[in-house]
Protein 1
Amino acid sequence: MGVEKSKRRVLMINQHFYPHGGPGAHRMAKMATYLPESDWEPVVACVDATPGNSFAFYDPGLEGKDTCEMIRVPLVMPPKRSLWGFVYRVLMYVFPQLLPGGPYLKMKKAAEARIRKGDIDVILASSPVHFSLIIADYLSRKYGVPWVADMRDLPGECSDGRNIFTELRWLMRMQMATCRSASALITVSEPLGDELRSWHPKKPVQIIYNGFDEDNYSDDTEPDKDHFHMVFCGSVAGGTSPVLLFDALDDILESDSSMLDNFSLSFYGSNKKLLSALLRDRSCSRLVKLKRRVSFEESIVAQMNAQALLFLAYPHAQGIMSSKLFEYLGAGRPVLSVPGDGGVTDIVLRETGGGVAGRTADEIKSILSKWISEWRDCGTLKYNGKTEVVSRYTRKHQAGRLGELLDRVHGACGR
């Protein structure tokens, strides 16, 4: 019999954690759930997500999901309609690396108090919020605890041109300087990994995908056989657009409108004003439903009830791996990527068999026509996902890879 390894503790410093409902919160919460299987005990320091705080992205369905020791610091935002509220939000936008200042100071104090207990072996700090990296850098230098930087997003990877500080890559230079003390770095795709290696050529860089959690999905949920429903969950972010899909739907309505008699496309949680403008004077507008943002659990149910899922890729940015892509893989429904990115997301869909990219309106029209014909003939749409390949992208598998990295960092420092 082998000797059982004793568990080590990792202090995870990140702005968002459950019941925050954003992708960064899901990433860290699932890592905290599965890291104990790699003999790592998480201690999480985060901002407290509370009802009524728009900045907190509160999801009541994620309450009570804590699986480890938690350190929560309050986030108090000034009223939006007050002068200070306006100034504060402008400063947050212009100086994203410095604000929100309140949680930074409180989290630094709380994390340092926890470090002083002497039982933390490694620190893991998650960006893109810069203050988590600053805190980890400070604690590592002062207390000699090695740290790992989780660079989920890199500054400037998909700038919309409005933030001049991102455009000048000031934030990038700050993060490069902060991460010099890190023992290793993490990001979510190979192109972003290559970028990090160019910043820090002497440091190990590990790819840890966002992934999906198999436990979130029910095998009992089946799509509506009488209706071809396509679903998109999330925001239509800068650089992504459903316009090519709308063009394809308009073309189908013009050539054979009966094909779309039982077709609908629902957007959950997207900017209604933006989508309404894109749909103005379009024939396909009657097929599109703009729905409110729903809880994480409700979004999973919506995906499982759909015949197919819409993914909006970043065609002009390399390496962006939205967590939604992996969430879709977990749902086990065919994915249509518009227009594809010619890179990492296309590769994942091709290798897993989870979906296809439609790069032009004609390609999308052909894909939809084929899918709808299959659905009409068979009553369902076949999913060609390869179980063995898809399983590589589970949260559990990714947490195991993170555990291996923490082992190496811990061992290299002789702790």
Protein 2
Amino acid sequence: MSKYIVITSINDLTEAVRKFAEIEGWHVILVGDKKTPPIEKHPNPNITFLSIEEQRKMGFKLYNFCPFNHYSRKNLGYLYAIKQGAKFIADTDDDNIPYEFWGRDISNEPCSIEIVSEPKLVNVYKFFTDEFIWPRGFPLSLVSDKFTPKMSRMHNQRIGVWQGLADGNPDVDAIYRLVIGKLVKFKERTPIALDRGVYCPFNSQNTIWSREAFPYLYLPSTVNFRFTDILRGYIAQRGMWEINLKLAFTSALVYQDRNEHNLMSDFIDEIPCYTQVDNVIGILDKVVLTGYPEDDLRKIYELLFRAGIIKRVELDGINAWIEDLEDLKEII
């Protein structure tokens, strides 16, 4: 098996998890936490459940830096998939129900694709809907801006991450849900990618990573749950430019039947998304990288620590992640 779907959940097997487990050629890795029921009672040959005890037994150094009751426990699922020889890792949640065509035609081969080269920060949702909507992690100062994108078709482009959209309850911030709160059906259109120097937040809800981009899967554990994948996404975009990989967006591949959330709690948890994104982008724009992901990750996280965006223990976490990846290279 070379294609894995990583999900963390505090629920029993949801409809979404069962649907993903039915997709031919993909294997589901379900990462447990303290609140997760004993999934072993519901055996499915296409689901590997990693209980907390199983996570500990895997022996990854990162285990000691993955807090309980935090989304970053997914990191242990990524490492497990890499150890199994993964070539693709899909990141999703237990409330995203895949459409029948999910995961088809995903490739890491060079492709011809439409590229956005301006503006610097682009609301990609605008290419897929006329609704007033923006992705979680997009700077609030720009949500009302009208922009004319500069686009062209380029050949031989290598995609490191494919971000599929989600119909229904797409990935938006709590402000959108509290003020607008509309369900959305995105238009179908050909994929688009972002050129070097162009950012858009991307998430962990419907995202497929190719092997070369795996080092950038790391979810920081010392930031809030609603910020961790957004921060990772900005870091990954910057790092991928140095290894000639791009971020691409596709039409919706899932329908999100969203788990119950307290929107005011989400809002509080998302405050760093609203207040720190500009600072993060400023750091990423100025940093000089080497093209060696492990070295570049250490440099970026050191700068984020100095800026007060992450805590010191995060530096130990990223070092443990990198050491685990290096150990896996010797095994694989």
